[in-house]
Amino acid sequence: MNSRPHKQSMSELKLRRLTEHNQRLREDLARPRIRVSEASASLIRYCKTTKDPLVPSVWGPVARNEDPYASQGGGGKGCCVVQ
Q1: What are the backbone dihedrals phi and psi of residue 77, each rounded to the nearest 5 degrees, phi first?
Q2: What separation in angstroms does the CA of 45 have from each of 25, 35, 42, 48?
Q3: DSSP state string for the chain
Q4: How many Å is the maximal CA-CA distance in the chain?
Q5: d(CA 49, CA 67)
Q6: Is there a domain that residue 82 lies in?
Q7: Burial of 53 (C-beta count, 10 Å sphere; 0-12/13-18/19+)
Q8: Does residue 45 belong to any structural domain of this protein?
Q9: N or C end of the chain: which has fewer CB within 10 A?
Q10: Number of domains the chain contains
Q11: Has this prediction a pTM greater than 0.70?
Q12: 67 in a domain, yes or no?
């Protein structure tokens, strides 16, 4: 019968897939982790100390020379026009 080699190759394929999945799980397990409370505190600290020119209601108006989104070219023309 020819079904025997096919079954063996299917089992080898399953074994290889399981081995690869096991390796990915080991890599995930080795990834450094921090507690949610530490991550949220870090995010809050970053948001409080990093000025965002897109939120003027929190940080106040931004001077044109400090605004990274203001047009840099002369004449007040930007790179594109929205109609």
Answers
A1: -95, 135
A2: 32, 15, 5, 5
A3: --HHHHHHHHHHHHHHHHHHHHHHHHHHHHS----HHHHHHHHHHHHHHS--TT-HHHH-PPPTTT-TTS--SGGG--S----
A4: 83
A5: 17
A6: no
A7: middle
A8: yes
A9: C
A10: 1
A11: no
A12: no
- Considering the domain boundaries, does residue 22 fall inside one? yes
Q: What gap in Å lies between CA 22 and CA 28, rounded to an integer?
A: 10
What CA–CA distance (Å, rounded) separates 9 from 5?
A: 6
- Say which residue the tokens 């990274």 belong to: 68
Domain with 29 in it: 11-49
pLDDT single digits (tens) 20-77: 999 999 999 999 999 999 999 999 999 888 888 888 888 888 888 887 877 766 555 5
d(CA 50, CA 68): 14
